[in-house]
Amino acid sequence: MGNPIHAGMVSPVLDGVFPDGPDTVLLHPALTPRHWRRRQVLAAARSGTVLKGLAGATAVGFALVAGNGFAGKFIFTAAVLIVVLAGWRAACAAREERGLHVDTPRTRLRRGEGWRSREFTDLGPDTARLVRELLAGVDELHRTSARAWLDPALPGEAHRVVWETLCCLDRSRDARALAEELATDPDAGEDLVAAARQAVCTIDHDLDEVARHLRGCLVLTRAWEAKLRRTDLTHRTDRALTALPGRDELSRLAGAAEALPQNVFAHVTAARDLAQAGEFPWERPPVEWPRLTLLPPHRATTSSPGAGGPAGEGQS
Asked: Where are the bilayer-spanning segments (predicted)?
């Protein structure tokens, strides 16, 4: 039987806002997306708002029964005011929560529906880090772009393994507490202390093995993601280079452009001959060619008479 969450291509690792603050949760493998959305709707509905709405509806009913007199109108107006104020307060609270936790739904989780990462912080920083790593690994396996190339059942199996791992970790609480108690109890024998410590070390070693194997899956999927990105970049580069104009086409355009000034020269010289406008500067001997200047023609110069230039040359 397939995992309902994975069948809907939804990651079972979600972020939510709980009464004690934001946290990450791993949903139960049997929890369907429809059930999870229903839990979010119930979490969004505050009990105070629901009670005020029921009170307003009851008051409206009394107003309808009372008739059109002053009492009925008063009760109806008060009920409408209560409902409006309750809705306004709920909207303000929702806006405030969205400002604090953008795009993070408010969550109300029943026992057994999911494991929160904060539930394991009391087991030590190493264990808390391990739990966060397991949850992040499951989430990445569900969101990776390499998922289309994997066994469809693999993300669901990883979800199940991590869920059962967290269950085993939760069951080790008594053993960990007992090991700490025996370590500080002078009446406990060395054999009991060693046995309890060995049991906890064995559990931690097996949990580390689960994390190591999950980490191996992520190494493989990330390597394949890199291959996919490389293939995509190669195809895009090939398409871009293929769309470039060829050398023959550019040579043909350069040849066509080369004929343009020759055409202009033929027409300009013919018009000059008809108009008897005289020679062009380049038709004179090179010594008679005008000096090149950076100033455009017909622009007055602003140089002083004492400076170099035509005016200065005339005075010298």
From this structure: 43-64, 70-88
